[in-house]
Design a protein that fits this description.
Blueprint (H helix, E strand, L loop, with lengths): L3 E2 L10 H7 L1 H11 L8 E2 L6 H7 L2 H9 L4 H7 L5 H24 L1 E4 L20 H13 L4 E5 L6 H6 L6 E8 L12 E5 L5 H19 L3 E5 L17 H17 L4 E4 L8 H18 L2
Parallel strand pairs: 1-2, 1-3, 3-8, 4-5, 4-7, 5-6, 7-8
Helix pairs in contact: 2-11, 3-7, 6-7, 9-10, 10-11
Length: 300
């Protein structure tokens, strides 16, 4: 039975325009428990991550400015959120959740963070609503405590995992794979180990064919010991920021493809939620819930 990190303080103060997408962090667990996909016992609420683990990945000065509330206004604008102590605490909890996810995935095959996927955070700066990079921190945890040498990041959010790519650009033990919208944020793309830039409006069949071919080739070539899967649902045609053309069923097939590949190759996988900004909140919840439903079925 796999574990899921719960976001206990999702509702920190935010400007009006950010409150709608944040609602999914409360509604998704409720939906999954109500329908019987998950039980309450599968959820865990992480504590804040220790500072020494944060500065293993992030610049010490940057972390201290976050912690002490001394980031200048330009740096705060780049992040996109107004600074608050609660926001910083939430980010450290998210990162702890993904570190614990990595441990649970080693034990159970798969594990989830109901939040996470903060892939725009660089070592010395934040951007795109990301302060700290949870998957990067967790990958360093696996390197340091489990001596892993072949970690694969599969980032299928519609936006390139630019922060993750930069953090690991000179780290041969972590291979970064980002499959994202060519014309989407960020304007300046970093160089992942493998970037696949997708055209606007790409169909389910074309998307799945590209993913299937490249993921299987990477598995064969890299032989990863562990996978971090960023499962953003901003790939949907209904997404306000996405520009791609996937249906909810297509997004569901994407997740099935990733999980079945991991199972077939006996690779543990830690899943972070990533983005989702469709006009209807129900579409966001349904697409995210499908990721958990498929895992519940395949890993039962």
């Amino acid at each position: 039975m796999f574990k899921v990190a719960f976001d206990p303080i999702y509702c920190h103060p935010l400007p009006e325009g950010h409150r709608f997408p944040m609602a999914k962090y409360e509604l998704l667990p409720e939906q999954l428990i109500r329908e019987g996909t998950l039980s309450e016992s599968q959820f865990f609420a992480p504590d804040a991550l220790e500072e020494d683990r944060i500065v293993r990945t992030h610049d010490k000065t940057y972390w201290e400015q976050l912690r002490d509330g001394t980031l200048d206004r330009k740096a705060q604008r780049k992040i996109g959120f107004p600074h608050s102590d609660q926001l910083v605490k939430r980010e450290t909890i998210i990162c702890r959740g993904t570190v614990m996810n990595a441990e649970y995935a080693l034990a159970n095959g798969v594990s989830f963070n109901i939040a996470g996927g903060t892939h725009h955070a660089y070592a010395a700066s934040g951007e795109g609503f990301c302060l700290l990079n949870d998957n990067a921190i967790a990958a360093h945890h696996l390197i340091d405590y489990h001596l892993m040498e072949r970690i694969l990041v599969v980032d299928l959010d519609v936006h390139q995992g630019n922060g993750t790519a930069r953090i690991f650009e000179n780290e041969p033990r972590v291979f970064t794979f980002s499959m994202h919208g060519e014309k989407n944020y960020p304007l300046h793309k970093e160089k992942s180990d493998l970037d696949i830039e997708l055209p606007d409006g790409i169909s389910d069949s074309a998307y799945l064919s590209i993913l299937d071919r490249n993921l299987k080739e990477l598995i064969q070539r890299i032989e990863p010991q562990f996978i971090f899967f960023q499962s953003g649902v901003d790939v949907l045609a209904s997404d306000k920021l996405g520009r791609l053309g996937l249906s909810i069923e297509g997004c569901k097939s994407r997740d099935r493809l990733v999980f079945e590949t991991c199972i077939a190759n006996e690779i543990p996988v830690a899943v972070s939620m990533g983005g989702g900004y469709s006009e209807r909140l129900s579409d966001i919840i349904e697409a995210h819930a499908n990721t958990y439903r498929i895992a519940s079925f395949l890993y039962s």
